[in-house]
Design a protein that fits this description.
InterPro entries: Cation-dep_OMT, SAM-dependent_MTases_sf, SAM_O-MeTrfase. This is O-methyltransferase, family 3. Pfam families: Methyltransf_3. The protein folds into two domains: about 25 residues, no CATH class; about 190 residues, Vaccinia Virus protein VP39 (Rossmann fold). Helix content is about 40%, strand content about 20%. It contains nine helices and seven strands, in the order H-H-H-H-E-H-E-H-E-H-E-H-E-H-E-E. Strands 3-2-1-4-5-7-6 form a seven-stranded mixed sheet, sandwiched between helices. Helix 3 packs antiparallel against helix 6 and helix 4 packs parallel to helix 5. Bound molecules: S-adenosylmethionine. The site of S-adenosylmethionine has 22 residues, from helix 5 and strand 2.
């Protein structure tokens, strides 16, 4: 794991808690250093191989910031639990999240990956080939997410993953609820948006949009939500039977 994939603004000194029973119960007293050490451990737990690292480096260079490994591992987990045959990703970037999803999906499953940048999709195609996936496993659509999503079939997908324009997350949710089948999963990256969502003083448009999304998902009776502190935050929800 290249150190550059983790933000370098955390504390440099890790304070260890004593290993007493009380300490085990005292997570609320853990220092920021302890929490960061545990977060990094969780991010590295599954880890990335060389193919993912290369795709992540290309994405980072082009500004298509890839999902962190903790989020990637969760996406692969979701796809495997669902034995997913049809997945949509909104904001495919240079292919990192796509590889994680494909690695969990049914071997005959098809990933529909939407991105507005043709160059990002060219590199995603390269990454999928390097990961050993034939072109028949992917459908890459170049365009504005909100133009493309309405053209996709109702209840036609096992999983919808969103990682494009944060201020459009609410619109992606509306489309995703329509696209995913009952029992399927909807997921959003950056649900903690650089630690800004939890801080009510942060009022920029992207932070407000991600915060509002969290409330909508939590309060929607059609969904069973969960918020993971993996990566930059992964919000997920299962679509219930009506
Ligand atoms: C954070 S990157 C996605 C990274 C990718 N999920 C990965 O893990 O490699 C966001 C991507 O969304 C695309 N994007 C931004 N706005 C978009 C829009 N309105 N419609 C479609 N794609 C968009 C960008 O071109 C970029 O590739």
């Amino acid at each position: 794991m290249p150190a550059g994939r983790f933000r370098a603004d955390g504390p440099t000194t890790m304070t260890r808690l004593p290993l007493t029973p009380e300490a085990v119960l005292s997570r609320e007293e853990a220092t920021i250093g302890d929490l960061r050490m545990s977060w990094e451990y969780a991010e590295r737990y599954v880890g990335e191989d060389e193919v993912l690292r290369a795709a992540a480096a290309r994405g980072t260079e082009l500004g298509a910031v890839p999902v962190l490994p903790g989020v990637g591992a969760a996406l692969r987990f979701f796809a495997a639990v669902l034995d997913a045959r049809a997945v949509v990703e909104v904001g495919g970037g240079c292919g990192v999240s796509g590889i994680w999803l494909l690695r969990g999906m049914n071997p005959a499953g098809v990933l529909t990956s939407i991105d507005i940048e043709a160059e990002h999709q060219r590199l995603a195609r390269q990454a999928f080939a390097e990961a050993g996936f034939p072109p028949s496993r992917t459908r890459l659509i170049c365009g504005e997410a909100l133009d493309v999503l309405p053209r996709l079939s109702d209840a036609g997908y096992d999983l919808v993953f969103c990682d494009a324009e944060k201020t459009e997350y609410g619109d992606y949710l509306t489309e995703a609820i329509r696209l995913v089948r009952v029992g399927g999963i909807i997921a959003f990256d950056n649900a903690l948006w650089h630690d800004r969502v939890a801080d009510p003083a942060q009022r920029d448009t992207a932070t407000i949009a991600v915060r509002e999304l969290g409330k909508r998902v939590r309060d929607d009776d059609r969904l069973v939500p969960v918020l993971f502190a993996a990566g930059d935050g992964l919000l997920a929800a299962v679509k219930r039977r009506a």
